[in-house]
Amino acid sequence: MELPAQLDTTNRPDEWKIEQGMAGHKLPILDQSESDTVHIYPPVDMKLTKDEEAIASVGNRAKLFARERKGWKGYVEWENYPQKKAKAHKILTSQTFDPCPDFNFGPIPGTNPVLPGDDFKEWHTALGGELTTTADDSWRCVLKEKHPDMLHLLQFPYNGEPPKRLVTSKAITPNPSTLSGTMVVSRSSKKKLDGLVHNPKTYKFSDLMDETKFPRIEKTVTIQCSGTRRIEQISLYGGQGDEVPQAPWAEGAIGTARYVGISLKKVIKDCGGLIKPAKHLELYGAETYVKDLEVGNYVVSVPWSKVKANEVILAWEMNGEPLPKIHGYPMRVVVLGYIGARSVKWLYRIKAIENPSLAPVQSREYLYFNQQVGKYNLRPTDGIQIQEMPVSSAIMSPWTKQAIVHRGKIRCKGWAYSGGGRWPERVELSADGGFSWYDVPPEKLSKKGKWTWRTWEYDLPCDVEGWIEIVCRCWDNSLNTQPLNVRAAWNWGLHVTSSAHRIKIYSINKSRELTRRRLDKYEQLGVPLAPLTRYEIVPGQTDEEYEEYWKAHEPRDVDE
Ligand SMILES: Nc1nc2c(c(=O)[nH]1)N[C@H]1C(S)=C(S)[C@@H](COP(=O)(O)O)O[C@H]1N2
Ligand SMILES: [Mo]
């Protein structure tokens, strides 16, 4: 019989995957709101459009979007020029762009960089002028400044994390994670402090270095991105992170470094102090930020109470060196105990204002929503502005799905952190999915610090053979701890994965006689242990052992 070349089927080519629950997101959205169900398919073959006339009417982009300051490559000022913002908006809305590939439902590309960030790149080139080469400049800077082993999650705006083995190798991260766009700017320029202060001033870099006016502060600080461990939320349910596209962070979006700088409070005092009703400080970073096709600079705010407590630092040195470009050269803000997003890089202006900033990074992103808030019922006012991170922790070694041969103890390593000036007081590990817990002994935790994480190591007792779930959780000094499951903290913004960290491990337990003898046999015969799931080459029992067993025990069958 001739075999048919093609199956005679009406199935779609991915029918099996859909039936197996692996591609349900490829199905049409079902609209059951009326008596007849309607299938809503994504548009096919969407043609990209471009209204050349509208774009040309905006004017000469090289002039419009020119460099704002000498030496500050890539800096276009938006916040001072509403008309310029409107023109940029017009350019971006007069054309359509290829949608970024969605990876929420997988597969996440296995490449490095993982995601190119095409949206952000295209918006920059569409705006043109000074921004034409920003994406390339940024990537060039990454390759020059970052550790060669970085895992680049998003090429532009740059997001990257060190591999796990480097994250906790030292209490001070040798080369911390970087989580944002890159600017190439110079020191020879001024910072402006204005808004609701008595004497608005402009400072040269050297003015701020004047130690008689502004005493130096040196602090070891952990900066954690609110997207840390986002990958666990993504793997559970698709959502919408803020960055474009949302970076699939693992446990490395956190780093600890020693910063040198001055307290922002002193600078405000130097401007004669705040004028009523000022209660917040708006911080301006020089690079271009796009949100919903609206263009601006990177702007957030911190409350005066935080500044007043000397917990907001203007820093220029990191780990004994001038700030690397990618970490904000020449000057960045370091907000102690707040999420990374508030520690503005490439700082050029500070403005005293009454209410938290209306800029998108403060008011429309980095919000923590209730689980029942999603794409179609989301209002920014319903989200909590994320400032202090809750207590969290992560197991950095071993990796999930790894098999481990051990003698009753599994060596684990990781970090623990709490925001807002709280610190990890106890780290606990469970080898049985979170039913029973062991303390990491205090001497196995790195030193306490008000603004820093603690790294830890522990030989976790494990009595069993087979798949186990190791769980890690931390208690901070205020007795806050972590929810036990990702779902409990899942949110549409994919922020703050602070649930206890769970990994699955296959335990090959040599403290068990049977396993030990078996592994010896593998060794004698020179049969490799890996891979785990390969069929047996060394039989579990010889025929003689099998017979012996039944001689010594009751038979399988019973007669009556
Ligand atoms: N100007 C500017 N500052 C920024 C960002 C940015 O995109 N632009 N990203 C922020 C975010 S989200 C984080 S987590 C931290 C990361 O700092 P690091 O790269 O030094 O780790 O920088 C913050 N400061
Ligand atoms: Mo971040």
UniProtKB/TrEMBL annotation:
Residues 385-506 form the Moybdenum cofactor oxidoreductase dimerisation domain. It comes from the Eukaryota. The keyword Metal-binding applies. GO terms for cellular component: mitochondrion. It holds the Pfam family Oxidored_molyb. GO terms for molecular function: heme binding; molybdenum ion binding; molybdopterin cofactor binding; sulfite oxidase activity. This is Sulfite oxidase. It comes from Penicillium frequentans.
